[in-house]
Amino acid sequence: MAEDQNAQTELHELRKSIDNIDAAMIHILAERFRCTQRVGALKAKHDLPPADPAREAYQVRRLRALAEDAQLDPEFAEKYLAFIIREVIRHHEKFRQQPDRQ
Q: What is the pTM of this model?
């Protein structure tokens, strides 16, 4: 009985930590997208393409190395980055379509 209670307490504490990490990740992603929105506006203003394959390839290599150092599956890190890049490019394309871009 005491073991079950200890397990439940530990589970509760671990879940609180996971919830805190999830909240931090959402805030970090929001900040990242605020920055990429500014990049999209700048690219639209100067008629630069939404995608930058050289930058993307560099970021893939960089994040894979960071993942390995952090003992995170590099494939997972690459998939995460690919998702983020797709969203960023989608946002950049929207900026290019806005008639009032500065």
A: 0.79
